[in-house]
Amino acid sequence: MCKSYHKKIVLATMFSSFVFLGTAISAETMNTKGFTDREINAVGSAKALVSDSVKKTYEHNGKLVVDGGVVYPIVNGKTGAYHVNEQAHKTAFNKGKVATKNEQKAWDIDVMPDGTGLPEGSGSVELGDEIYEEKCISCHGDFGAGAGLYPRLTVGNAYELQKTLKNQRVEPDSDGPQRAFGSYWPYASTLWWYIKTGMPHQAPMSLTTEEVYALSAYILHVNEMKIDGEEVDEDYVLDREKFLKIVMPNVDGFEPKINGTKGQDNAREYFNNPLNYGNGVRCMKDCFEGEPKVQRIKFALTDFSPPLSSEKVLPEVKEEKDVHPGKSNYEASCAVCHATDAMGAPAVGDKKAWEATLKKGLDAVIANTMSGVNGMPPRGGSSLKDEELREVVDYMIESSK
Amino acid sequence: MNNIDNISKKELEVIAEVSEQASRRNFFKKTAVYSVSALAAASVVGPTSIKANEHIKANPEDDPHIMEEKPWALKWGDDVTVNLYGQPSPYEHKVTRRTAEILSSGNMRASIAVSPIQDLSGIITPNGLFFNRHHGGTPTIDPNQHRLMIHGLVEKPIVLTMEQLKKYPNVSRIHFLECPANGGPEWRGPQFNSIQFAKGFMSCAEWTGVYIKDILKDLGLKPEAQWMLAEGNDASHMGRTIPVDKVLDDAMIVWGQNGEALRPEQGYPIRIVVPGWEANLCVKWLNRLEFSAEPFYAKEETSKYTALKHTGKAIQHFYANEVNSVVTSPCPEKPWSDIKVGEMIEIEGLAWSGMGTITNVDISFDGGKNWVEASLKGLVLEKAWTRFSLMHKYTGKPMLLSSRASDDAGHIQPSVKNERAAVGIEGVYHRNAIHTWEIDAKGEVTNVQILS
Q1: Complex ipTM, two decimals?
Q2: How far is A360 from chain B (nearest CA, A)?
Q3: Within an 8 Å CB–CB cutoff, is residue B446 touching chain A?
């Protein structure tokens, strides 16, 4: 069932959203925070790098501003540059109606790390594999290894790859940090919540509780994870109780610490120290030695749509053609996979691929469209009617002649 | 310029043609040939009204655009019922948002269209050019069926219709929204020779709505509430956790943008605006706010929108977009190739800080070794775009043109070197290092980074 997926994953990890670029961090002497003596001298003392003015407090509780910034209390009827009708902010206006328990239940779809919002239920890796092949593989690739620009769901063994998070791609061929669900996410609750409310991308909220448990189990499996010491293998059945025992390898990988009653206070402390995320020095003269070291574009990204232009010209007059009735449904529901052959689907416009497909005969092609074939789910995962699907198929064939 | 000349020439030919035609019927037949110009096609030009100034003999140094009457000045224009919702001039049709496949998460429903900041003036982005990022496509929401629920750790959970929401006293504020990945593709070096793609993941508008703290007045926020989930009713059901401190300061639920209703791609009918903070926190198509004691860990605050540092630890809940700036003129799209040596020219740009108000912007011509202070101009507002300006006598010599902004919170834009030292090069988000354009002897502009 779950053949070796490592090969696919290796291929996927070679793909990155952005082109690898070499970089050279300046070799000029700098202190541990990244400032040269010259820069520090420019502002008088190292203390000035963490400006004392970054210490503003909120009006409503007198505590440090949580983002390390400034607040603008109302003074003389104004906040900053804006006049204020202070009466507006002193009165209760009592609009709307009380939300019923049922209404709240219907909309309360989030799932939290402590299990709040996670329903009772279970699902197996085996079922997850089936659903994955039917509903997920067309975007996320074999075994969650990613496809095209779609996110990968695994990069291999979560525990091993969590160790790569310190990696920096300082050279074009160096290994970067491997970020995916297993190696990076702090809590599995996010996975359950996201699958339930956001997936499949074109049909969110369509999976049952069992299906979500099953897909969660499958994704834990392809990330080679363990729950309570037990490997999530091909025969594993995940349920709520087990789910709440999942400890993600990177659970301690995030700062500031936001859990517990000190959560906001920790954020306050963290963001009021700009050295945690970078700050500059207002040096005005002779700020570094020698000539500036210039890093230029090595691999320009130019795939701009529409192409860049500042010309002031009239639009080209487009001749009105008869629009094929299948075109709009194709673009809305089918182009994601059929625009190119990246998903293994015959690409629209690829004459040879369509000649090969049509050897089966038009009826067979229509039948496959309805029932699904290879990586394609029934009706391409769409909710189009039979007649609409026939029009789409006709459009795709006509466009590939 | 050439294209304008060409079109004008054609229009002039049309007019020349007209003067030779005796019958109006023939005129329409002939003008149809020149349908490339909408103006010409709509012409009803009398055969005798060609040149009021034809007695003047034009010399070669005279601008033909002055010497010849323009066709649009010789006939009626459109009546007031044309474009009841106005549109830009057709000559401006190339001023648009743009996207690139590399910026998507697989398809164009989870992607971004970036703002043409090279073409904008002042600090307000027109609604049609406001950058646009969504995670599951833009829904078309019926406002009559849309509701906002506020529940969780409040004494009185409520539901509001859009009409009820708009009955709260409203406030209007000018704030930028910036995707925290603005500039994010360039942590390891410059990649886009374009300001629109290098810095256009942001826009600035006047927002009208209600402070959330004003709604909370009669809901009874419980003391243990530390966090608020904001959730949208689009296909991605995107949620983000916002600390209650910010909710009680300046977070707003808005329905108005630059004087009109939010556009669908901006969250119609309502979105949150969390002034100065990651635009991703400004959840669109908002339908639920839930208060809690613990953070929610939504997908877009764990898998994404966390900044991985060289220590292996990632910054989460990275709220404010830090102080930042960029020179918008010149830029790769607006070079100085037509500026003559010795000519005076304005260097102009945008500065912004999600932590406060811009206090000053410095300009360097030598890649950041020496700096001079630029002027701020126009409105200088907190958490809003601020224009800066410096007059320059063009020397025609190559230069490295950088800008560096500071804000009233005490933050100063770091150099590329300072920022890489603090967080490394894998952070993706919140890159606010000093931006530099290299200008060559021809006045062409390219995107570079200075590592000194």
Answers
A1: 0.88
A2: 30
A3: yes
Lowest pLDDT segment from A141-150, A192-201, B51-60, B339-348 = B51-60
What is the SS3 assignment for B172? strand
Using CB atoms and an 8 Å cut-off, which of residues 50-89 of chain B contact chain A? none
B132: phi then psi, degrees, rounded to nearest 5: -145, 110
The average confidence (pLDDT) of chain A is 86
The mean pLDDT value of chain B amounts to 90
Q: Which residues contact A149 (CB under 8 A, 6 or more apart)?
A: A17, B101, B102, B104, B105, B106
Structure tokens belonging to residue A387: 């007649």
- pTM, two decimals, is 0.84
Which residues on B lie below 8 Å from A21 (Cβ)?
A: 188-189, 191
Residue of A nearest to B296 (CA): A112
Distance (Å) of CA A321 to CA A318, A388, A392, B90, B99: 9, 20, 18, 22, 27
CATH of the domain at B383: 2.60.40.650
Last residue of a domain, one of B23, B54, B73: B73
* Cis status of the peptide bond prior to B398, with omega within 30 of 0: no
Quote the minimal CA–CA distance from A39 to chain B in Å.
10
Alpha-carbon B169 to chain mean position: 28
CB A325 within 8 A of CB A389: no
Confidence of residue B148 (pLDDT cuts 50, 70, 90): very high
How many beta carbons lie within 10 A of that of residue B293, not counting itself? 16
The stretches of B114-191 forming alpha helices (DSSP H) are 162-165
DSSP classification of residue A57: B
Q: Which structural domain range is residue B338 located in? A: 324-448
CATH number of the CATH domain containing B154: 3.90.420.10
